[in-house]
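Following up on my earlier message about flavin mononucleotide. Here are the inputs again, as you asked, copied directly from the submission form:
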Amino acid sequence: MLRKFHSLPGLLAGVFLIVLSVTGAVLALAPTLDRVSAVIPASGEVSIAELADRVVAHYPGTEQIVREPSGKVIVYYSRDGQAGADLVNPVTGEGTPYEPSAFFGWIKDLHRAFMLDDAGRALAGVLAVLMVLLCLSGIFLIARRTGGWKNILRPLSGSGGKRIHAELARFAVLGLLLSALTGSYMSAQRFGLLAEAPDTGPRFPAEVSGGQPSPVGTLKALGNFDLGELRELVFPYPGDPQDAYSLSTAGGSGFVDQATGELLQFEPRSDSGVLQDWIVRLHTGEGLWWLGLILGAAALTVPALSITGATIWWQRRRSSGQLPDNADAAQADTIILVGSEGNATWGFARELHSSLNKAGFRVHCSEMNALAKQYPQASRLFVLTSTYGDGDAPASARQFMARLKEFRAEKNLRYTVLGFGDRQFPSYCQFALEVDAVLARKGMNRLLAIELIDRCSAAQFSEWGSRVGELIGLPLLLNYKALHPATVKLELVERADYGIAVQAPTSIFRFKLAEQGGWPRVFPRRFKALPPFEAGDLVGVMPPDGQAPRFYSLASSASDGIVEICVRKQPGGLCSGYLHDLKPGACIDGFIRPNPGFRPATGSQPVILIGAGAGIGPLTGFIRKNTRRNPMYLYWGGRDSSSDFLYQPELGRYLDDHRLSALNTAFSRADERTYVQDRLKQDELAVQQMVSTGAQILVCGGRDMAAAVRQVIGDILKPLHIDIETLRGQGRYLEDVY
Ligand SMILES: Cc1cc2nc3c(=O)[nH]c(=O)nc-3n(C[C@H](O)[C@H](O)[C@H](O)COP(=O)(O)O)c2cc1C
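Thanks, got it. Here's what our run produced:
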């Protein structure tokens, strides 16, 4: 909901917001340019009387002197019956012709009203309010993403457009909020929704001395005010002894007797007037050039925020498949909730949704994170979810358990859970099992007992559909067709083999894109064979027998020009065996699957990389990319340094050039027999110190190693009163476990 609340106004207003922000950024430069060109005497150096004296000496026909918030002094005068305006040097009284910038004037019109008068002004006002909503919902989204308000400045995880969007938003949000709030206020005043400060000022004095006018430089009241306080000084009508000087200063306004120099009827500025002045200054940066620059920099992020925001929205819409005829949650009689990380489960959900729709049900389908507080019309709830990590919730279901606390199930709502997983994982469909149990504990009744689908089996899914069909009283034919992303041919160019002597055959495979035939060859740019990828993303490898793809973590990124993976040959492993039999020149079919949840954070906080065996692949990829030399520490465990010390020469080079700050290895078949968790224990104090300064921990490797590391890190963190779950919530404990 919060996300929708954030993305809808953004999408609607994107283009106008870009115009508003770019023009705002240009206007924000004006106070600085004015400040640079203005001559500003030190406080106490020139009084208003002295200024007026100098100005009158050069401009005998002076009618008005105005001091702008930037410090610029302008004199309005008449000479030989002609009106003129000059910019004045307050120290000498000399002036140069004053011509307001036509360019800034044009930009101001565009900014205030899109060149459309009142309709444009109203639109600008609405946009300012939308911007306030975007900023507020954005702040909440960032807090949610970083694991709470107190972590809001912590490094962000993730990559690509999402990361850029969140980082830029965090940098700019306060500036944007200030501009939007003050802009909304000014607009509301303009359209009479808020009262404007009355612009009356004091009445003209009932009595003036009417004596012989004294030279302006000798008038006592004007001598008492510093030039810095001046807003405007209007001269008396020449030859009229009953007229007086009208003076407006930062503190108020009044009149000055032109003969006695006495201050008459002075009224301090009202509170509403002071507030209005501040609103204008905070919006424009007038008189606060440094604020203008901050607001301008914040405004410049809006085009990038709009583009990345639209891209995120589009990707989310595409990945959740935007189901046609998706009923409203409040009207639906059937609800399908989907937990998915890699989108495979969405394919099954779509098939179920379309079959039930065809059968005449009103079906609402959404991600599990979007669980509503209640479904008033629904009598069936289907939960389809995969399991990720080591028995964990997939991305689109991570907030499900928390949201479930607020969920009120109607009495007649019956549910069934369908788990998607892979039997090779010991925590097979663990998350689905947990969801099933927790729904039962909430007192809900099952429509059908939980069932588990192994490796996206279409046959199992179809059988489950028949059973559901029997229960709801109509034949439900679920015909799921797997949609694998288009694969490309990857040619093995190099392999380095390790670990054979210690019964842990592990190889580093480097592939390049094989020569493409057909259209890709003619239009290589249009047919970009592989999407951009980073170390830590996954490459899906199609085994030769047409079975479901197997996924391996990438050790390289697209800019390396190769697809590099590190694979241990599993006893009886179909795909790992296939890869280990490959010789240079052989080709495989593969595709990239992004894995943005496993990336080192940007920023200068330390990164602790922990892995064992082939898990070193993506960790080495992260170090290879650490060209900014942020502190990175690697703890890695193998069997024997003489046989399976993967990436040894490369890691040595990274130590020398400081991409890697320290390397701690542990070998389980060496004389000392140590494991990576032992090394962590030995470095307890250093780990505590790094975590307390904001370090992020990334673990990659087998489940047993990851469990042992979790145990040890949990113990190490106890004195800091931080647990792993808290770090996870902050994106500071990431695992890629297989
Ligand atoms: C990194 C990774 C971790 C996984 N962990 C588990 C697991 O712990 N238990 C399980 O049953 N399946 C696990 N799986 C298998 C997925 O649940 C399975 O492939 C599922 O069909 C993915 O569906 P999705 O693409 O909708 O997320 C894992 C898959 C990957 C790539």
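One observation from looking it over: The domain at 607-737 is CATH 3.40.50.80 (Rossmann fold). Hope that helps, and feel free to reply on this thread.
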